[in-house]
Design brief:
Length: about 130
């Protein structure tokens, strides 16, 4: 991962999320536990302790999508990486994903939005260091 210390905060946040998503997907595809891989990837940005939070976000995202996330396109960020980065950067955007549930939100969508918000708060605090 590049040195993110001088990057704008939103760029740093999205870079960490992208790294987390790619690491998580690689571990899951390889049949490995995700959290140790996440820890190693996130620790490069001093965010290793957020591995459980990112594990929850990724798992809940896949449950909401009802499919595996697609990550790691060598030419550009995959749409799922962009989606997760955007949602962690601004969890309020998740409300639009579940607009059809506005009157009766499902427990799954509520858990996902809560995980996004808490991960955002912890990531902001960690990056502000």
């Amino acid at each position: 991962m590049q040195d993110l210390a001088s990057a704008p905060r939103a760029d740093r946040l999205r870079a960490v999320v992208t790294e987390a998503a790619r690491s998580w997907r690689a571990a899951r595809d390889g049949g490995l536990p995700a959290q140790p891989s996440l820890y190693c990837a996130l620790e490069r940005s001093d965010c290793g302790l957020l591995a459980p939070a990112f594990d929850s976000v990724m798992r809940l995202c896949e449950r909401c999508l009802d499919r595996s996330m697609c990550v790691g396109c060598p030419l550009a960020r995959a749409s799922d990486e962009t989606l997760i980065g955007d949602l962690v950067a601004d969890p309020a955007q998740a409300q639009a994903l579940f607009a059809c549930e506005a009157d009766h939100p499902s427990p799954l969508s509520q858990a996902f939005i809560c995980a996004l918000r808490s991960t955002r708060i912890m990531l902001e605090e960690t990056l502000a260091g």
